[in-house]
Amino acid sequence: MLVLILLNFMLHICTLWNNSSIQPPIRELINVAVQLKNKARSVLKIIDSFIQAIGAFKLALRQSPYATSEGAKDRSAEINPIVTTGYMLSKMERRARQGKRLAYLSMTEPRVDGDKNADVVGTKTYFSWLTLIWNGTITKAGECFSGNRHETLQKIVNGDDRTLIGISRYFTSNPDLVNRLKNSCPVTPCDRSTFFTNDNKRHLNFSKFGDGEDHSGDYVQPTALV
């Protein structure tokens, strides 16, 4: 059983420890390395506890370097997210060299900010630096697959032998997503506004490529079996 750290408190820690809670002029008197060490201490203690309890190979860590939700700072902050995330990854790689390599790292690109779509127009994110620090398996999710980007997806997957792509939201609008990617067929856009609703609309009426939509079951209500 693979245990993936997706608990809210862990996700919040992984973003909030990037929160600039120490303000100038005090910040200018404190070494950046000391700040990073102090902010990462709690996260590392939790990770080490999991490693001791179940083993590193059953554990995975998810981080969102470019997220700005929950008070985390973006690339305009005094301490760039690359610095804070890079520090955490260096700690994970050091543990890996001691025989405690995590199953994988899940890195989320800024497709969403919290539960809303992120504004990624005109922005670029670079995750090439990850492989310079972490030598294990990486799962990328978010903006790395957004819409009809088959060539980009293939380039990422074929770039090395340890990068995986996590796709979830496009399965809601493409029940045959695997075949569409395999055959380079157009991908139907997903509808985030219907991800968490109490009816079938935009859940069961999406069809396979080339078939028409069926709206007959949009508002079907559950009925008792007895």
From TrEMBL:
UniProt GO molecular function: FMN binding; NADPH dehydrogenase activity
Highest taxon, organism lineage: Eukaryota
> What keywords is this UniProt entry annotated with?
Flavoprotein, FMN, Signal
- Enumerate the spans annotated as NADH:flavin oxidoreductase/NADH oxidase N-terminal domain: 36-184
**Does the keyword Flavoprotein feature in the UniProt annotation?**
yes
Question: What does the similarity note say?
Answer: Belongs to the NADH:flavin oxidoreductase/NADH oxidase family.
Q: What is this protein called?
A: NADH:flavin oxidoreductase/NADH oxidase N-terminal domain-containing protein
Q: Which organism is it from?
A: Pichia kudriavzevii
